Amino acid sequence: MEQRLEAYGGEAKGLTIAGRFRVPDTYVVDRPTGRDEDDWIVAYTLEGAGYVRTTGLEHRLGPGDILLLNASVPHAYGTCAGEIWGFVWAHFSPERMDASFLPTETATVAPIADASARRRIVRAFRRVLIDARDRGDFWNELCYGALQEVLAIAARQIARRIDPRVEEARRLLAANMREPVRIETLAKAVGLSPSRLSHLFKETTGQSIVDALNAMRVRQAALLLEHTRRGAAEIAYEVGFQNYNHFLAQFRRRFGASPTGYRRGLRLE
């Protein structure tokens, strides 16, 4: 059974349906026959972890991941075991979108690494939720305009696909973000030697494996600062930093401000 939490919009064809959920691991949506052909889902994960399954495929969804799902195919999605999944979502008609923004796969997950792009996505979804709730003049057109921006950002990221072994290494880092990185274990999981993985990872992403992990941690910390009331020390530990001073240095390096200053700046926007 699908839970509706802060869900707005209409069920009529072509009207935007949108919402923001924060749900435990009992949350499951199972559609064995899919939905209408004129229905796609876009979802953006804010915190925790979810999953989506289509025929023969399963994707894990972590903070900063965009999901594009052709909802006409059989599918299921929900919260991963032991997790809370916080995400925003919208149903939309593909007929009203630029076709070049829609992937050919039935389910596509695009990790959004750039912090400014992530903020743009959150702001765009915020506009969708407000317009779909208030239903002022041209509300549906405004929703589609904001969703077009989200899909354009996702399409740009999808166009930058990298070596699948590096993608898998990044996925494993994100899934085990709270744990210390062990390059030997990571390399074995993707079928490469430690030295080859380190070289390929740096060559492809421009970052070392350790730098990439620290970047994931501080991006997650920034999302938690924005969307929760937790203190910076608690957040630092939750995302995997064992040393608070190291967390502060990494956070300042990426965002140019302390966690307190970053949160204060968000309130002023």
Structure described in brief:
This protein is an alpha+beta fold and 269 residues long. The chain has two domains: 7-158, Sandwich (Jelly Rolls); 164-268, Homeodomain-like (Arc Repressor Mutant, subunit A). The protein contains nine helices and ten strands.
Walk me through the structure.
This protein has 269 residues and is of the alpha+beta class. The protein has two domains: 7-158, Jelly Rolls, CATH 2.60.120.280; 164-268, Homeodomain-like (Arc Repressor Mutant, subunit A), CATH 1.10.10.60. Helix content is 45%, strand content 21%. It contains nine helices and ten strands. It has helices at 115-134, 139-158, 164-175, 183-190, 194-205, 209-227, 232-239, 244-255, 259-268, and strands at residues 7-9, 17-23, 28-31, 40-48, 50-54, 57-61, 65-70, 75-79, 85-92, 107-111. It has a six-stranded antiparallel beta sheet with strand order 1-2-9-4-7-10, with helices on one face. A four-stranded antiparallel beta sheet has the order 3-8-5-6, with no helix packed on it. Strand 5 (50-54) and strand 6 (57-61) form a beta hairpin. Helix 6 (209-227) packs across helix 7 and helix 6 packs across helix 8. The chain is globular. The chain starts with 6 loop residues before the first strand and ends with a helix. Mean pLDDT is 87; it is low at 1-6. One of its GO terms (molecular function) is DNA-binding transcription factor activity. Keywords: DNA-binding, Transcription, Transcription regulation. It comes from Paenibacillus antri.
